[in-house]
Design a protein that fits this description.
Pfam families: DUF883, DUF883_C. This protein has a domain of 59 residues. Helices cover 84% and strands 0% of the residues. It has three helices and no strands. The radius of gyration is 23 Å and the shape is elongated.
Length: 103
């Protein structure tokens, strides 16, 4: 099975956006507004959609912040100890190369 060149997080974001847009369209176009059960269900669905969007946004911001911190720490480490950084990079490349060669 070929691997997609698109990062996993981007595909998840696209899927969530599609799901969100579809749900919003369904909520706008379906049901009898005079039916009390429909009104309650629509309100619960809208609240759930809002909650999920909020949690996804918060999680995304949190992951971005943590990744940015890790990059800064790695950059600081390589500037403080350049030869150790080169050694770690070479070791990681060797391990990755060996793992890929086993396939």
């Amino acid at each position: 099975m070929p691997l997609s060149s698109q990062p996993y997080e981007t595909r998840v974001d696209d899927d969530l956006t599609l799901l969100s847009d579809t749900l919003e369209e369904i909520l706008r176009s379906s049901g009898d507004p005079a039916d009390q059960k429909y009104v309650e269900l629509k309100a619960r669905a809208e609240q759930a959609l809002h909650d999920v969007k909020s949690r996804v946004s918060t999680a995304s911001d949190n992951y971005y912040f943590r990744a940015k911190q890790a990059v800064y720490r790695a950059d600081d480490y390589v500037h403080e100890k350049p030869w150790q950084g080169v050694g770690i990079g070479a070791a990681a490349g060797l391990v990755l190369g060996l793992l890929l060669a086993r396939r």
